[in-house]
Amino acid sequence: MKLGELEAVVESMLFIAGEAVPLSVIAQTIEMDKATAKAIILSLADRYEKEKRGIRIVEVEDAFQMCTAPECFEYIRNMYHSPKKQGLSQALLETMAIIAYKQPVTKAQIEEIRGVNSDHAVNRLVEKGLVEEIGRMDVPGRPVLFGTTTEFLRYFGFHSVKDLPPLENDDGMETLIEDHSIHDEAQQMND
């Protein structure tokens, strides 16, 4: 298969999937090694970016997803005349940052850091698919351990949790909370 044909196959796979497709699946489907498949994907992504197309290909962990270009959000929102979607409240952002940096973490540990009851915040983050139960602590009562999800990575625009800003005297958490507004509107298009 020629390069143009491979790009067309990859493009159609990402379009039809509607969610992140693991690199291994793409490579297997086009019968290429992972490095070649990734080069094809990144070439497409680069072309979309350079040509200022209305779609983008983003990497989420070791997978790729097609999504709307952030700069098109206002036009699409106007098309549907939908009210602006509510972002995450300050309490949810604080709780999200704690979970992201301290995972795996229990509600009690979150509350110890925040100094307030965090049941509602954790439950809302679970409902939004940004946080999930990842196990239980091996102590009496077996409290639930929470961690971030792939949706968290998409929502905040990270490839992996390794991309979180460095945590130095809680500056990383503050950066995550402050930078959230940059990614919030771009993410709204994918919800």
- Integer count of domains: 2
| Name of the CATH superfamily of the largest domain | Winged helix-like DNA-binding domain superfamily/Winged helix DNA-binding domain
Q: Give the low-pLDDT segments.
A: 181-191
Number of helices: 9
Q: Strands across the major sheet, in which order?
A: 1-3-2
Name the shape in a single word. globular
Gyration radius over CA? 19 Å
End-to-end separation in angstroms reads 35 Å
Q: Strand pairing plus helix content: what structural class?
A: alpha+beta
Question: Tell me, what is the CATH class of the largest domain?
Answer: Mainly Alpha
Q: Examine the secondary-structure arrangement and name the CATH architecture of the largest domain.
A: Orthogonal Bundle
Helicity, as a percent range: 40-55%
Strand content: 5-15%
Quantity of strands, as a count: 5
- What value does the average pLDDT take? 84
The largest sheet, given as strand count, sense and whether it forms a barrel, is: 3 strands, antiparallel
Give, in order, the helices and strands: HEHHEEHHHHEEHH
CATH topology grouping of the largest domain: Arc Repressor Mutant, subunit A
Overview of the structural elements:
Helix 1 packs across helix 3 (34-50). The chain folds into two domains: 3-68, Orthogonal Bundle (Arc Repressor Mutant, subunit A), CATH 1.10.10.10; 90-188, Winged helix-like DNA-binding domain superfamily/Winged helix DNA-binding domain (Arc Repressor Mutant, subunit A). It is globular, with a radius of gyration of 19 Å. Residues 181-191 have low confidence and may be disordered. It is α+β, with helices and mostly antiparallel strands and 191 residues long. Strand 4 (131-136) and strand 5 (144-148) form a beta hairpin. It has helices spanning 3-17, 23-29, 34-50, 73-80, 90-102, 107-114, 119-127, 150-156, 171-188; strands at residues 21-22, 55-60, 63-68, 131-136, 144-148.
